[in-house]
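FAQ

Q: What does a record look like?
A: Structure on top, sequence underneath. For example:
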């Protein structure tokens, strides 16, 4: 669910937006990550973004994306009321 590149990006975004949205990076297998990936219909890992009620806001497969995609997903979460 994460690599070093993505961990750095996520941690930076958490510092910037962490007071408005909960942002974390975790390895597949930690907590309920496997169930969360499955319910988001991802094959193995990626970004799973949910609103405060648990509704899926965005899902991004894999980790072949960079800061722009992470920022895009966080922007979607920030718009959810």
């Amino acid at each position: 669910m994460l690599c070093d590149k993505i961990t750095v990006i996520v941690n930076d975004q958490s510092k910037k937006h962490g007071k408005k949205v909960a942002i974390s990076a975790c390895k597949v297998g930690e907590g309920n990550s496997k169930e969360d990936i499955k319910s988001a219909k991802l094959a193995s890992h990626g970004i799973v973004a949910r609103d405060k009620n648990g509704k899926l806001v965005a899902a991004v497969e894999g980790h072949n994306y960079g800061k722009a995609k992470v920022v895009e997903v966080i922007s979607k979460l920030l718009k959810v009321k």
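Q: Is there anything notable about this one?
A: The beta strands are 46-50, 56-61.
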